[in-house]
């Protein structure tokens, strides 16, 4: 095992820790880690990210459930439009994107570059959500009509399908805003949605790409260890302060990805 692999597995542990501590952000670390440190193609990296984040979140869901911080009914209802969108985008939309998005003079924006830039834009939005750190009282609103939630679930599912994210950083505020769930319970409930969306989305990838199972299962196992530790530590550490710090880290990573992919 070389130094790069060791660093990759350390990164897997951190991915799990982040998911356990703040209920999202696993893919924000997983995709750049797989692409820039371990050298995977962004299409493969986003697929692997879905499996890693989905499996790890499943373990986290069980832990949160034991603490009474999971609303299964709301989570399952909310996940329905999302997992449809995630599966369809991984099975048909991502494979259907042309290899060259556009060319301008000597500059060419490829499919791989486009996915990473789109991922960075979502990271920018996520970082804003984490840094602003609104109070729960400011977020809670009346429940909206289900058809609106269905449409929003399709939109979030499509976005997370393209970038290979579990979407916890999008689903937590959505559950608070639309389902009127308290913040701590929203974090636990979001893990159900992330689990279902990610693993169903990954089944779309199995049919289109070759999976390196030994590496993927090892990486995932280490990430699972991380989330077990993270959920335990979340009882003693302020998730709000962690979320804000991680938000600034996400902001920096987003600009780095844009710089790296566009060569600005």
Automatic annotation (TrEMBL):
Family recorded in the similarity comment: Belongs to the 4-toluene sulfonate uptake permease (TSUP) (TC 2.A.102) family.
Annotated InterPro entries: TM_pro_TauE-like (IPR002781), TSUP/Inactive_protease-like (IPR051598)
Protein name: Probable membrane transporter protein
Coiled coil: none
Membrane topology: Multi-pass membrane protein
Transmembrane regions listed in the UniProt entry: 7-37, 43-62, 74-93, 113-131, 151-174, 213-236, 242-259
Native source species: Hwangdonia seohaensis
Record keywords: Cell membrane, Membrane, Transmembrane, Transmembrane helix
Subcellular location: Cell membrane; Membrane
Source organism superkingdom: Bacteria
Ligase found in the keyword field: no
């Amino acid at each position: 095992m070389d130094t790069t692999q060791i660093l990759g597995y350390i990164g897997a542990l951190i991915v799990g820790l982040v998911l356990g501590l703040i209920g999202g952000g696993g893919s924000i670390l997983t995709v750049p880690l797989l692409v820039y440190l371990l050298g995977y193609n962004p299409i493969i990296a986003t697929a692997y990210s879905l499996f890693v984040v989905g499996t790890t979140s499943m373990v986290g869901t069980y832990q949160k459930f034991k603490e009474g911080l999971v609303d299964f009914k709301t989570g399952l209802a909310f996940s329905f439009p999302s997992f449809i969108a995630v599966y369809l985008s991984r099975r048909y939309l991502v494979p259907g994107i042309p290899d060259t998005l556009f060319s301008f003079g000597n500059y060419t924006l490829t499919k791989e570059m486009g996915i990473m830039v789109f991922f960075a834009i979502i990271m920018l939005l996520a970082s804003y959500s984490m840094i602003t750190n609104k109070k729960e009282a400011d977020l809670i609103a009346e429940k909206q009509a289900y058809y609106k939630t269905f449409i929003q679930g399709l939109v979030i599912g499509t976005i997370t399908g393209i970038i290979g994210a579990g979407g916890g950083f999008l689903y937590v505020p959505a559950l608070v805003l639309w389902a009127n769930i308290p913040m701590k319970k929203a974090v636990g409930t979001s893990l159900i949605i992330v689990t279902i969306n990610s693993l169903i989305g990954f089944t779309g990838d199995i049919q289109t790409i070759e999976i390196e199972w030994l590496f993927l299962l090892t990486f995932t196992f280490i990430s699972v260890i991380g989330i077990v530790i993270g959920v335990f530590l979340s009882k003693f550490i302020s998730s709000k302060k962690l979320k804000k710090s991680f938000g600034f880290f996400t902001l920096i990573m987003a600009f780095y990805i844009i710089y790296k992919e566009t060569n600005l």
